[in-house]
Amino acid sequence: MLASQHAFFSNILDYAGMFPPAQLPLDASIRNYLQYQSEAESWLLARFICPAGRLHDLRPYIAEHVGSGSPLRISVLGSGGDRAATFLDNLNSDLKATADFRQEFGPAVAVECFEARLPAGDLLEPADLLRMTSATFAAKGSAALPRFFELPATANWPRIANALAALHHTASPEGQGVGDGRALNGLKLRCGGSEPAAVPSAAQVGTAIGACLSANVPLKFTAGLHQPVRCVAPALGARVHGFLNLFAAGILGASAGLEYDELVAIIEEEDVTQFIFSDDLFAWNGAKATVSEIAHARHRNVISFGSCSFDEPRDGLRELGYL
What pLDDT does 175 receive? Predict the structure, then answer.
């Protein structure tokens, strides 16, 4: 294993087995996650994504996991809401459930982040909503909990810069972060779905990545990222994004200061031989990142991606000879 590959892919996948298209029951999903943790490629695995309303259902599995010597890593999925008022009410309940869960299990669990979709049916400005959101996190004793917000499907993409600026400026009212300057508030970008129309264009994804880098907003991806490299998915009949492409764009964008057109070119790259790993570097088309720069970007800029499958991304990396 090359050091650059380990830095690039470490803790890259948040397991979302309960969500489409897998939609496994909680029992099968959490047992899969715990099994994956015992396998050779466990270093690829980050958090178990669990809805706030299902946290209490994890009790028996936590009891089984206690002897492992490491906490059960959780990303809590919030309930969201179509309107700002509903979103904030649900956030209040979700954070209470999260706090109760953390208090009950203490060091046996590690709630590492919270994620939710912002409401689509409201005219409230992002900055106003996010100020209220930050206040709710503080009131519930979760001021330092990292959170990722998904823009609604109806969002006007040209307004993404305003939303990201709001995320950045409300990220930490007390000047806190997640270490090394990482902001608390991040963007969750949906990259696919069950229909071709659910796959955002390379231009849209490039806009999001570039805006996040400019605004110092951490980014996580979700949906549709089953293959490392961009390709045509036969079942979908459309090109789908590759998680290697997206993280390469984020890492090289951060380390080499790439322009928008270069980010889009990386996202559209389908020739895997153009992605070059050596022991001390990752490179594409002359742009390079050292191992320390890769690790830095993974901590601050491109955090992880959610997937209902661990096997498919892992198998894809094996086929490329990376594992």
Answer: 46
Query: What secondary structure does DSSP assign to 48-114, as a single string?
Result: EEEEGGGGGGGHHHHHHHGGGSSPEEEEEEP---SSHHHHHHHHHHHHHHHHHHHHHHGGGEEEEEE
Within its chain, how far is the Cα of 137 from the centroid? 19
Residue 173 confidence class, pLDDT cut points 50, 70, 90:
very low
Q: How many domains does the chain have?
A: 1
180 phi/psi in degrees, rounded to 5:
55, 30
Helix orientation angle between 260-268 and 243-256, rounded to the nearest 10 degrees: 160
* Domain containing residue 230: CATH number: 3.20.20.70
pLDDT at 174: 45
Is the pLDDT score of 262 beyond 80?
A: yes
Mean per-residue pLDDT of the chain: 91
- Which range marks the domain in which residue 201 is found? 3-319
